[in-house]
């Protein structure tokens, strides 16, 4: 049996038993003991999230460099360590030690808080992702709503970065980024609504459990036609929302700047960099959870299945980055509102019509 199964429930039960025995003579009320255990469990979850976030960023950085280099017939990192695997640590040291430069006329508090505000929501989303059987740090019955709400907060940090820098290019880049993210959040959420209708639950843990079955027969991706449509709309919207090629127009490379984080350096810029890669992991992990059965799968431990599916979707996003050219800003916005939103709305109607059929054949 995989020792990681039910990891967080087992930790909670162990803490509960430990403190119940430790505080037996203290005559504390049961709700006080429960509060202490919940507080310590929350700290454990925070430590877990803080520890895994840099690891995910560093790993995905190396993987993307190798994947895009392969697409472009290059070698990629190959000097620092075997296969260039230590290059990511060299880059991390550079970010930690590089001088932090703040523009003289910048709003210093807004400039300082922007990368923090951008980073925190993404890290908090990791807390509700089911990494494996019983490996959801926080099993919320409104997990989907929680994810949607927190993912919207990133736009605040991006606009703060553009405004607080007191740089016209940064401000324009921030406004473009906010417009793009808000526009593509709409079809992304509508695609998720179709899956929520199929599952009848907002809990990510319940959605994974409902997709159990041999060889992925009950994966919502195969709930034809609504599953594939929702998946395509979600993935396109997700790639656009995390500001990746061919949708990375807020970077403003034709202006020889870097969009909303033009005036950032050192670790502050590193937080934006980490947020981008964590965003990529989060949207692909959510896609694996909603459409590909999450940790469900035969033979291998559940957490390995989760990472395999998530990595597959990440590789697809990297493949898109190395293949497609950028589109114009007007094309970008029109595609969201005139194509993806109508398709997603029609798909919700199809989902409502198909629900009795799916129930009849045992898909849900």
Give a quick precis of the structure.
The protein has 364 residues and is an all-alpha fold.
Strand percentage: under 5%
Mean pLDDT level: 85
Helix-residue proportion: 55-70%
Report the C-alpha radius of gyration, rounded.
22 Å
How many domains comprise the coordinates? 1
Q: Find the count of extended strands (DSSP E, 2+ residues).
A: 0
Indicate the low-confidence ranges by residue numbers.
none
Oligomeric description of these chains: single chain
How far the N terminus sits from the C terminus, by CA atoms, comes to 28 Å
- The coarse overall form would be globular
Q: Strand count, sense and closure of the main sheet?
A: none
Global structural class: mainly alpha
Q: What is the N-to-C order of secondary-structure elements (H for helix, E for strand)?
A: HHHHHHHHHHH
- Compute the number of helices: 11
How would you sum up this structure, described in words?
By secondary structure, the protein is mostly helical. It has helices at residues 7-22, 30-71, 87-97, 108-125, 143-164, 168-199, 204-209, 226-241, 266-291, 302-321, 329-360. It has one domain (98-360). Helices cover 66% and strands 0% of the residues. Helix 2 (30-71) crosses helix 10 and helix 9 packs across helix 10. It is globular and about 55 Å long. It starts with 6 loop residues before the first helix and ends with a helix. The model has no long low-confidence stretch (mean pLDDT 85).
